[in-house]
Amino acid sequence: MFVHRLAKSGHRRQFPRWHPATTDRIPEPKMDTKSGAGERLSRTQGEILKLSHRIHAHPELGFEEERACRWLETLLADHGFAVTHAACELSTAFIARAGSGPLHVGICAEYDALPGIGHACGHNMIAAMAAGAAIAAAAVADDAGLTITVLGTPAEEVGDSSGKIVMLERGAFDGLHAAMMVHPAPVEMLEMHIIAASMFDVHYTGKPAHASAFPELGINAADALTVAQTSIGLLRQHLKQTDRVHGITTHGGDAPNVIPAHTSARYIVRAENLDELRDVRAKVLRCFEAGAIATGATLEIKGGTKPYADLQPDHGISAIYKRNAEAVGRAFPDLGVLGQRMAASTDMGNVSYALPTIHPMIGIDSLPAVNHQPEFAAHCVTDIADKAVIDGSLAMAWTAIDLALDSEMRERLMMRR
Ligand SMILES: [Zn+2]
Ligand SMILES: [Zn+2]
Q: How far does the centroid of ligand 2 lie from the alpha carbon of residue 310, in Å?
């Protein structure tokens, strides 16, 4: 039904602005906004979970998430959101808005999958939680003094020039007072250690030759990559504990009896923050240069121009989220060393430098399965995951409501922008 409607609408028009139907309202004198949001969520939860499972069953890679994007847009439009398709000139980005209150909260929806292992980072749950939270909060937005925007942010997994980075540059976050999203993880974490990251492609070009008859006439691009990888191995002694260097060979040659004339690799370098990232990246690039110098191959680096920033969570909003998550029954265990050691990256870090942001992790009790494993993908549609989707939706909706109703918080957020 959704698809049919979209096909007829041409999928590009602006949907009408949302006005709450009077039948959905709790009678006067004063509605309790949080229970109003909760009631709306419980009436919608079937649709929210269906969306989570549907996206999970149809994984799409970054910037190719046509179906997930359309399903989200349709669901939000059906619930009265004004939807802009292909926001910021990205075909799989969207902006959906409801309410007209003074405090403007953005909720980010991610929906990209990983090559070969599907929704092994659980972005189907992120998308569903963003929709659930927004629909719940929209039910009471005008009473709470809220405007709610869902930002459909594609391609979080790509590691460079991703959806949120481009959307930030193109103004999608302008006018927002706070941004939030919830990400699934093996265990619950309020403020995960989010470090900076840069992904780039490395290309070596050498010269082909018969590998046995005329090897002296060839320039071996595979050797260049081997020298670079050996240099990176030696560099590890000099890296900080928060630095990371990891990559894959994307092309290693064509035949064992032909000197490889072209090889390529894709690498990610990470560090505590963007300043430290610059230093580590320069050292890693020298390792790739070493490969070119040693073999005579030429080196070309592509991408890596728009890195992910570390995430600076707004501790005040985090505390409010924690209270609300605990109120719906979530618990935040002390992870000790594991919590320190675990570090990942997200383009939500870039958002956190532009406006107050939180990115809590919701636990789906998957250990020993962890993110980016097929076993984790399987955990992202279990009953435990579904419960997490509803809990995360409600905790975010209530957090948005609290931000609007807490006068001190509201003033702080609105003063900034
Ligand atoms: Zn991931
Ligand atoms: Zn992820």
A: 15
User: From the CA of 372, how far away is ligand 2's center (Å)?
Assistant: 8
Give the whole-angstrom CA distance, residue 190 versus residue 332.
7
Residue pair 97/148 in contact by the 8 Å Cβ criterion: yes
C-alpha to C-alpha distance for 4 and 269, rounded to whole angstroms:
44
Q: For residue range 374-398, what is the model confidence (pLDDT) as tens digits?
A: 999 999 999 999 999 999 999 999 9
Mean pLDDT within 36-58: 98
pLDDT tens, 131-149?
999 999 999 999 999 999 9
Residues whose CB is less than 8 angstroms from the CB of residue 168 and which lie 6 or more positions away in sequence, other chains included: 350, 351, 354
Question: What is the C-alpha separation between 70 and 92, in angstroms, rounded?
Answer: 8
**Length in residues, the chain:** 417
357-358, strands of its sheet edge to edge = 82-85, 94-98, 146-152, 103-109, 178-180, 357-358
**pLDDT mean across residues, the chain:** 93
Q: If you measure from the C-alpha of residue 111 to the centroid of ligand 2, how many angstroms do you get, rounded to a whole number?
A: 9
Cα(211) to ligand 2 centroid in Å equals 43
**What percent of the chain lies above the pLDDT cut of 90?**
90
Neighbours of ion ligand 1 (CB under 5 A): 121
Torsion of CA 50, 153, 87, 386, to 10 degrees: 10
Please give the model's pTM, rounded to 2 decimal places.
Answer: 0.91
